[in-house]
Amino acid sequence: SIDSVPLVLEFKPDMSYYCLKKISVKRFEQEQYEAIKAIQIYREEHIQSQSLAAVHFNPENILKRMSFRWAGEEKAAADANTPQEAEGAS
């Protein structure tokens, strides 16, 4: 059952959850860490970019970023040579 599980971890790139039943810790030497550090950073950045792509390419966000508005009829522009009526005219 879920009550006996020590940790439930959200994994955002796949919009899913991982349920960890057992955790083991393995210590690395400094040389081993340096060897795998670059690959691990690349992998994490790739996962993060996949998460952001779902937000970035969402049609609503595209419309918002582009300040998109549907085309509509423009109001007739007032002619500069035609005198305007005064608001308080009687």
Task: Provide a descriptive summary of the structure in words.
It is a single chain. The longest helix has 27 residues, at 30-56. This protein has a domain at 27-67. A hairpin with a 4-residue loop joins strand 1 and strand 2 (16-20). The chain contains 2 helices and 2 strands. The chain has helices at residues 30-56, 59-65, and strands at 7-11, 16-20. The protein is of the alpha+beta class. Strands 1-2 form a two-stranded antiparallel ribbon.
Helix-strand blueprint:
Layout: E1 7-11, E2 16-20, H1 30-56, H2 59-65
Antiparallel strand pairs: 1-2
Oligomer: single chain
What's the overall average pLDDT, rounded?
A: 76
The N- and C-terminal alpha carbons lie at a distance of 83 Å
Largest sheet: 2 strands, antiparallel
Question: Which secondary-structure class do the elements indicate?
Answer: alpha+beta
Number of strands: 2
Q: Please state the overall shape, judged from the principal axes of the Cα atoms.
A: elongated
Query: Low-confidence segments, ≥5 residues, pLDDT <50?
Result: none
The rounded Rg comes to: 29 Å
The helix fraction, in percent, is: 25-40%
Strand coverage percent: 5-15%
Characteristics:
90 residues, alpha+beta, two-stranded antiparallel ribbon, 2 strands
Give a quick rundown of the structure.
The protein is of the alpha+beta class and 90 residues long.
